[in-house]
Specification:
The chain has one domain. Helix content is 22%, strand content 20%. It has a 6-stranded mixed sheet with strand order 1-6-9-5-3-2. The protein has a 4-stranded antiparallel sheet with strand order 14-15-16-17. A two-stranded antiparallel sheet has the order 4-18. The chain has 318 residues and is of the alpha+beta class. A hairpin with a 2-residue loop joins β12 and β13. It starts with 12 loop residues before the first strand and ends in an 11-residue tail after the last strand. It is globular and about 50 Å long. α1 crosses α3. The chain is built from 8 helices and 18 strands. The structure holds zinc ion. Zinc ion (ZN) binds next to α3.
Length: 318
């Protein structure tokens, strides 16, 4: 495709910790593969599991079924899942594309699953759209009733959270040493994935295009990168997601993002919220949530996803 460049981004989403661990080598040969498409599904999710316990596979299938019933895409979303030593419970490394035919923004990284949905074809045949790692040391609850015992982490909840990062709920904005920046490699090291970690070229993610400060200024438009001014905005300002759909679904208010960590919704505002708490940092301190909620759905719409609409603006004949 002329003028296109297919690159991959390590928009690694850690659950509340900006830390990273070097990953143990994992086999590139999946030991099982499954395909999820429920009768009401609007998207297909294909999963390759590597050394994943059967209980975890069933729980992950539950998570992908939930997402496939929400998203609308004719191009399968391909995910590889592994268990490995991690400092956090889960980690998603999305594959990414920029400047493809149909992209709403130039010089902007899109998760490849979204780019495929927009382009209506697989832009990266043979490659995964995201790789998700789960910690081998977490005390997981693999049930799907959302009722983990005290001290256990709800696997379905964390799986849905990580998949959401892979769908594009992922910022490349960061602050380090007082400097704010975007489009620079997020971590010094990365897990071993099936695609190379590229130089991000100083370009933002599609998510970043909507991140605003209190005054309504879009950070990637208003502040140079890297800069102390951007660092101050990221660390001292209230951050918001300024997409029209997210605002509409949030009772006409801009959803608040987590300060210093705009890949998540603000913990103070949304963690107690059983509707919108899924994408707060370090989820799991509240009851397990198995629905992304109205704000997240609006964010995904703003990024370019088509969402299966079950309630809004009833259409004639439905
Ligand atoms: Zn996260």
């Amino acid at each position: 495709m002329r003028g296109s460049e297919r690159r991959k981004v390590t928009s690694c989403q850690l659950l509340g910790l900006a830390a990273f661990v070097s990953m143990a080598s994992v086999s590139c040969r999946p030991d099982a593969q499954s395909q999820s498409r429920s009768p009401t599904a609007h998207a297909t999710v294909e999963v390759s599991y590597e050394q994943v316990p059967a209980q975890a596979r069933a729980a992950f299938q539950f998570a992908t079924d939930a997402w496939s019933s929400i998203l609308v895409s004719d191009v399968p979303i391909k995910i590889r899942v592994s268990f490995t030593p991690l400092l956090t419970r889960g980690l998603c490394v999305p594959n990414a594309v920029r400047d493809f035919d149909g992209a709403s923004e130039a010089n902007t990284w899109y998760p490849s699953s979204l780019a495929d949905a927009i382009a209506n074809r697989d832009l990266q045949p043979g490659e995964y759209d995201m790789e998700i790692f789960f910690s081998t040391s977490t005390n997981w609850y693999f049930g799907n009733d959302g009722r983990p015992a005290k001290g256990k982490s709800d696997f379905v909840f964390i799986a849905m959270h990580e998949i959401c990062h892979g769908l594009g709920f992922a910022s490349l904005l960061k602050v380090s040493g007082g400097f704010g920046s975007y489009g620079r490699n997020v971590f010094d090291s990365a897990p071993q994935v099936s695609f190379q970690i590229p130089d991000l070229g100083g370009m933002p993610s599609i998510f970043d295009r909507f991140v605003e400060n209190q005054s309504g200024n879009r950070l990637v438009d208003a502040f140079p990168s890297p800069s102390v001014r951007l660092g101050m905005e990221l660390s001292r300002s209230r951050l918001f997601f300024g997409g029209a759909n997210a605002i509409h679904r949030n009772s006409k208010r801009r959803p608040r993002l987590h300060s210093r960590d705009p890949s998540h919704l603000d913990r103070q505002f949304y963690e107690p919220d059983p509707i919108n708490g899924m994408m707060t940092p370090g989820p799991g301190h509240v009851s397990a949530i198995h629905d992304p909620g109205s704000i997240v759905k609006g964010v995904l719409e703003d990024l370019g996803w088509r969402i299966k609409e079950e309630r809004r603006d009833a259409e004639p004949g439905l």
